[in-house]
Amino acid sequence: MSPPPGRGRPPRDEGSAATGSSLRSHIRDIPDFPRPGIVFKDITPLLLDPAAVDAAVTGLADWARPREVDLVVAAEARGFILGGAIARDLGVGFVPARKPGRLPWETVSAEYILEYGIDALEVHADALAGGARVLIHDDLLATGGTARALCDLVERLGGHVAGCCFVVELGFLGGREKLAGFDVLALVDFATE
Fold first, then answer.
1. Distance (Å) of CA 58 to CA 52, 71, 184
2. Is 115 among the catalytic positions?
3. Which of 9, 78, 88, 133 is labelled catalytic?
4. pTM for the full model?
5. pLDDT of 58-81, one tens digit each?
């Protein structure tokens, strides 16, 4: 079934909407990765289960649909995995936010602080022209640095951040506070370590 004219597909009514409890069982802890003291939340088991992937994409897209987005901006690399699927489900464009030096055209960048270092992301300078309504997506919200940098980048380029969505939130790190003023959804919240 192809999307209707306008903004993507209508919400599904198949009882397959994502729930935090059903998706939580598909996320595993990897202790001491990428460095000692960090417990990495690995979504690979979720990606191995087609029903879980569908539930995650559906849950995120259904939340985004009433926000009438024009584009999905997703962070390299894990944000790309579901970001493109969310964009397709919504019937909108996709903008990859990549590590420096990986995009072939003129770029604009934003630096941010990770929970374990400093990094930067770039988008093509012409990707967000015309006041586009943008959905920011990444697999995980931790300290909020990546998502906040993308929000700032979108606004600097004349876009409007319609919302930020994540599969996983590490609520105990307070990243949502850096996104104050933006609508935020995380399908699974790990409120404590």
1. 10, 17, 16
2. yes
3. 78
4. 0.87
5. 999 999 999 999 999 999 999 999
